[in-house]
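Example 3.
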Amino acid sequence: MKLIKNAKIMTMDAQGVLEKGDLLIDQGKIVEIGTNLFEPSAEIIDAEGLIALPGLVDAHSHIGGFDIITGAQDVNEMTDKVTAEMEIADGLDPYSPMFLEALEAGITTSAIAPGSGNVIGGLVSAVKSSGKTMDEMILKKEVALKMAMGGNPKGVYGSRNQLPMTRMGVAAVLRKYFRDVKEYMRKQEEGKTDPTKLPVYDPAMENGAKVLRKEIPVKMHCTQFDMMTVINLAKEFDFEFTLDHAWGASRYLDELVAAHCPILFGPIAVAKGFGESLLIDIDSVAELDRRGVECSLITDGPVYHPWTLLQEAGEVVRAGLETERVLRMVTINPAKVMGCADRIGSLAKGKDADIVLFHGMPAESVSAYAVMTLVNGEIVYRN
Amino acid sequence: MKIVIKNGNLHDGRGSVLPKTDVLIEDGKIMQIAKDLSIKADCVIDAENKEVLPGWIDPVSGWGCAAGRGQARDNDEQSEAITPQLSAYYAFDPESMKYQKLYEMGITSAGIAPANSNLLGGSMAVFKCWGEGLEDMLVKEGCAMKGSLTQFKNVYGSRKVLPMTRMGAFDLLKETLRKAEKMEEAEKDEKLKALEPVLKGEKALVMSCNTAADIAALRHLLKDRKIRLTIANAYGLSKALLETDCPIVLGDLTDGFSKFNQAVDYDTLFAMIQQGRPVALSAFGDGASPGREILLWNAQEIARQAAKRGLDFNEEDLLMLLSWNPARILGVEDQIGSLAPGLDADLIVWTANPLVSNRAQAETVIISGKIVKGGNQDEAD
């Protein structure tokens, strides 16, 4: 047992903020949150003057799959525009130094996705930053099906003079895939009464069926007006989705509010250019949050180092949103999006003891840093 | 036009803070800094309870050299590894620079350098981030020679031409320096002529190096030469540098595809800072197109690293890495990089100190004495 004493606890849950509170941890779980907790057998962690937050959650990254140190490029299978059967976990190296960096930055779980080279990349998993094997680290294997609009698949296949070379082409590839999935599902339905009608098992179709049955959402890499295309496709085929990156959101505030889809914004700190990078407007997140849209922030790691997650949060603070609201975008909001809010994303009785102790208020104070990070109740980083 | 900024907390960029002080700006310059100035001005900006900081300088950068993501960078001449005759002045596009609105994130000037592909890339120039075109934005042309040891393998090695290895790179550098030193004046080509002021120590040599090994080898090569060396990128340092007066421009820390930027030798770096040595920060490393937030984010990472080590390092120390130090490194400290009478009026009124709190917004930006943002008027561009 561990007892974290006298921290300012920002629960991101019903208990709100405890100015001076204690967290009792047993067998990897939070068993009690309150003031003046007493447990003689517990190891005491003195957190006087520190701020306790739920372990941060990065809603979109590729760490372990791309890595300059290990030389990995194992999550962008750019041999076919549709690789819906891919499973991200097969491409992830638990010994990527990025996981240690994530722990140092306070990130305890990431939604790790296939790259955006293909229109349909494969399954996304929720992965904890600590563990020896992927089996140990995976919190939830099937979080979403990764897809990508725009420049990335255009760049990969267009340069080979293959479909998709254009945005029209990307949308057409998606429509064809979903029509095929519907046909596959229809045959499966028929197969229930007439087994001769059963389709040959196809994992790429199975994953699409999970989307159309709304068991998992589409995780869509998209920016600017591609977001409107995605909203239309989702209406046409009736699936749930997140809009990842979402640069240019400020031009479509009403539409995004009406679409009622989570926005996974970032990364920023990219030079403003043409096309997709014409407008990079993180201030739109502040406005979307005020209008009830569930927003999360993302590093797209290892495009940016894990510590930049809180820099992004800092820029939303600069845009005028209250710090506590902004911190939800790196804790409970992404946990909900990943369907993992029963385990992570807030500090509450029964949840995983994934906890970060910060010196200084993260996202607000420039020099705030993680003093200690716990995953499943174990201290996995200490400054 | 006379502008007075009233009652701001002035941070001069050299370590001092003047609480509740006024600044008089006229003809593009800071004319006076004093309390309770009573001068009739065309524009009075109330800065009470606000922080007035000098505009920051990104000293070794490629700002204004590419219009957009993935586009050809005009400061990246990858046709041969030794091109000291080139000048980044001709790579710079004022519209491309202004388009980024760097000043909204604190930056008002930048050293524009040839990219990291070439061993000797060419001359640098210092430009403002806003102005009425090339000449208006120019602070200094030819302020330093830029070279790099970080990218030649990718650029030339992949073509199987010299330099493919560090041996090859250093041989090429050595031979170039030898020719520039020994050859008869009449026989020298434009490349060798361009190196003359560098060899005489009149013009600094800014070399991008990622590792301590690169720096050590470079210092060995330059031993007994008068060349004034500045190290950029500078992730791997070594204690030996503490015995030198070599300035340091720490490169970008955010790019997760860099092998080097999370292995910064902070012990040596902070030791240098505490010695008062010219250490500056940059948004640029070996990545292609950083955004305008990155210089500030890098500065915040430095603040965090100092805090983690429990060092005595405050926001004025941090500001110096963005203002006075880069100005000194570029040799433009008599024009920009601090708040003092006679210097260019490049300053920003922040709602809070951006080196302390992320609540800070750049409310009024003044570059070369002109209000570019805020100040009770619409943005100038």
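Chain B has a mean pLDDT of 95. The first strand of chain B starts at residue 2 and ends at 11.
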